[in-house]
Design brief:
The chain is of the alpha+beta class. It is built from six helices and 13 strands.
Length: 335
């Protein structure tokens, strides 16, 4: 059996002038020798100490580029590779329709944003034990001047906290808009977002404290009748104000969050969007956080949303698109 010939790249054939010397080797050798000869003729007599080292270096470089290989590669290949490595960019950016898609500056703060978007989990209610009817409540006294002053003061503090919360939410939304804009130098907004989220949590905690203090100084006459005495106490936690994070910044993009009756996020809920003619135009699916969002905008008009998941029922939603950025739709499932 005859051995199979080794495949060779015949397209890289080079013309040979003398023996194994190619045209490229001859040009390198001629260039080095020609430059050395030019120095010898022009400036060697006047400046011999400077000219002769240059003549020797030029001749040796011509010989090296022509006949000195390194790892079976010519010397000019390694020089070109070195220059390309030095001056080529080491970080790439995906460009589509003139827009740069770089790393999201809010990616490093995703844990803080996720924790802030979650509220306390609801506590399961326990059926109260039957108790005898309470006696009729006595007439409550009128509130004093001190109580009224405390109520007004707390109301002013609550109003100031509400203004600060709105300003923080606007600053967070502005940072997100600036992060989506292309810029020649990427800017890291993670520290600013972390500071704003921390400030929001402090403001929400202060608002909850003021609300509890308002309940303490509330006049007894305005309070509802005392509930019957129960051996098992039913605890209903007060949910603080949650910061809503936008799922999209493009207009006419339907997005939302799906929850079960207990307030937990529902995964793998199929959302079908129909136009006014009853034709399906989009089909979306929720992630682990119960979020769904379209990838492309829809034309202006009236659309209908139908949600499906085994074991749950949903209302049929209708929405009108008018070219604006839509906030997330909160959809609650029926058991």
């Amino acid at each position: 059996m005859e051995p199979h010939p080794i495949p060779q790249n015949v397209t890289s054939f080079q013309f040979h002038l003398v023996g194994d010397m190619t045209l490229k080797q001859f040009l390198y050798l001629a260039g080095g020798a020609g430059f050395a000869y030019l120095l010898f003729v022009t400036v060697a007599k006047d400046y011999p100490l400077v000219t002769w080292p240059l003549i020797i270096i030029s001749s040796l470089l011509g010989l090296a580029f022509a006949f000195l290989p390194f790892a079976s590669r010519p010397l000019d290949y390694w020089v070109a590779t070195f220059l390309k490595t030095i001056y080529s960019p080491t970080r790439r950016a995906w460009r589509k329709t003139g827009k740069d898609y770089r790393e999201d500056p809010l990616f490093k703060s995703r844990y803080v944003m996720y924790i802030s978007s979650l509220g306390p989990q609801p506590v399961k209610e326990t059926a109260p034990i039957a108790a005898p009817a309470p006696p009729a409540p006595a007439a409550a006294p009128l509130p004093t001047t001190e109580d009224l002053g405390k109520t007004v003061d707390l109301a002013r503090q609550a109003q100031g906290l509400q203004v600060k919360i709105i300003q923080a939410e606007r600053a967070l939304h502005q940072i997100r808009n600036e992060a989506t804009k292309p810029s020649p130098v990427p800017i890291d907004y993670s520290q600013q977002v972390s500071e704003i989220m921390s400030e929001l949590q402090k403001l929400v905690s202060q608002a909850s404290q003021i609300r509890s203090r308002l309940d303490e100084v509330k006049p007894a006459a305005a309070a509802p009748p005392a509930p019957p005495v129960e051996k098992v106490k039913v605890v209903i936690p007060v949910k603080p104000k949650q910061t809503q994070v936008a799922l999209t910044t493009f207009p006419n993009v339907l997005n939302g969050i799906v929850k079960d009756p207990a307030g937990n996020y529902l995964e793998a809920v199929v959302t079908v969007i129909y136009d006014k003619e009853g034709l399906p135009v989009r089909a979306l699916k929720t992630n682990k956080l119960g979020q769904f969002s379209g990838s492309t905008p829809l034309p202006n008009g009236t659309y209908t949303l139908e949600l499906e998941k085994e074991g749950y029922n949903f209302d049929i939603l209708q929405i009108e698109l008018e070219g604006g950025v839509l906030p997330p739709l909160i959809v609650m499932a029926k058991g």
